From TrEMBL:
Short name of one Pfam family: Aminotran_1_2
Protein name: Aromatic amino acid aminotransferase
Modified sites of kind N6-(pyridoxal phosphate)lysine: K223
Organism: Nocardioides piscis
Biased composition (Polar residues): 1-13
One annotated GO molecular function: pyridoxal phosphate binding
Catalytic activity annotation: an aromatic L-alpha-amino acid + 2-oxoglutarate = an aromatic oxo-acid + L-glutamate
Length: 357
């Protein structure tokens, strides 16, 4: 019998990523996609112009060194260029971190439920995903996560705010956690939604990275900056870690248009953050409306809210669909609903009123 090529055994164990679906078209009804935590605002004209200009040179490879982007990020964050690593979305950085720091069988500790790409990236690297259940209110159980660290642990992923449950980690919780975790373990603080956080005692990622040699921040242009379609994320890390991330990165992983759009977006931060403020106001309005309808939902610090639904998840998603909104169901657990246009958010409140807790 001829032998056929076969992938490593871990490959068949990689969980499937379920992307948020588009809404079902409903004649006479505007529909809203609230399934992927996207920014509902269209791009700023200046950002479109910068991307269009860059597209004019599409026959050339992008700057592999991301020089302009690093310079703009270094300036806006107040960090050295050597501490930055950009990638094809911050999800790529999770892959790169696991690829650069884990041997097969090494362990990566993370909360669960949390960002669904974590076990995918970890399993793809033949490392082991160690899932620590979130607390009943959707917060990370950092005591249990510290207790889950073993001799094989190379990375702990802390997602704040946590996708999909919503709460953010406090600085004192993170400090207590960091004091317990050995310094050779990398602590990755996934700040994909950091710009939406309004909790006063939330983690200050930049201050924490500055005071620890084992702390890495991952951030993205997909959410607050509204560039999800262009795929740009970045890590802020102590220089040797950032260098390792750049070393394992896909060559030319951030396209010219993506680099140009990200640089233009950083220049327009004030205007973009006014939109973020409006989304935060909408988020708080949705949380209040949903709670007033009798739901106990977790604190929401990102651009989404979480409904714990157990066996009623599919029914909830179907009821949403009837109202012209598409949510992101997690079978048997609950549904995450992104904050979108005010009319879509009104429908979320309407859904909370009609679908009883
Ligand atoms: N981290 C978290 C917690 C996320 O929710 C997401 C996107 N859903 C990402 C990282 C990845 O974002 P991107 O790859 O678009 O930068």
């Amino acid at each position: 019998m001829a032998q056929t090529p076969h992938p490593r055994s871990n490959v068949s164990a990689i969980p499937t990523y379920v992307p948020g679906k588009p809404p079902t078209p409903r004649p006479g009804l505007t529909t809203f996609k609230l399934s992927s935590n996207e920014n509902p605002y269209p791009p700023l004209p200046g950002v479109v112009e910068a991307a269009t200009r860059a597209a004019g040179a599409m026959n050339r490879y992008p700057d592999m060194g991301n020089a302009e982007l690093y310079a703009a990020l270094a300036e806006s964050l107040g960090v050295p260029v050597d501490d930055l690593a950009a990638a094809t979305g911050s999800v790529a950085l999770i892959y790169q971190l696991v690829g650069a720091f884990c041997d097969p069988g090494d362990e990566v500790v993370h909360a669960w439920r949390s960002f669904e790409a974590y076990p995918i990236a970890i399993t793809a690297a033949a490392a082991t995903s160690v899932k620590v259940p979130v607390l009943p209110d959707g917060r990370h159980d950092l005591d249990a996560m510290a207790a889950a660290v073993t001799d094989r642990t190379r990375i702990v992923l802390v997602c704040t705010p946590n996708n999909p449950t919503g709460p953010a980690v406090t600085q004192s919780e993170l400090d207590a956690f960091l004091a317990k975790v050995p310094s050779h373990v990398l602590v990755v603080v996934d700040e994909a939604y950091v710009e939406f956080v309004r909790m006063v005692d939330a983690v200050d990622g930049l201050a924490t990275y500055r005071s620890h040699d084992n702390v890495v921040l991952t951030r993205t242009f997909s959410k607050a900056y509204g560039l999800a379609g262009f795929r740009v994320g970045y890590a802020v890390a102590p220089a040797p870690i950032a260098a390792a991330l750049r070393a394992v990165s896909l060559p030319f992983g951030v396209s010219s248009v993506a680099q140009a759009a990200a640089v233009a977006s950083l220049a327009a931060t004030d205007e973009l953050f006014e939109r973020v403020d409006a989304l935060v106001t909408e988020r708080d309005r949705v949380v209040a409306g949903v709670r007033a309808a009798g739901w106990e939902i977790p604190d929401a610090q990102g651009n989404f809210v979480w409904f714990e639904l157990g066996g009623r998840t599919a029914d909830f998603a179907a009821a949403a669909d009837e109202l012209g909104i598409v949510v992101r169901p997690f079978a048997g657990e609950g549904a995450r609903v992104s904050i979108g246009e005010p009319e879509g958010n009104d429908r979320v409140i309407e859904l909370a009123r009609s679908f009883r807790p």
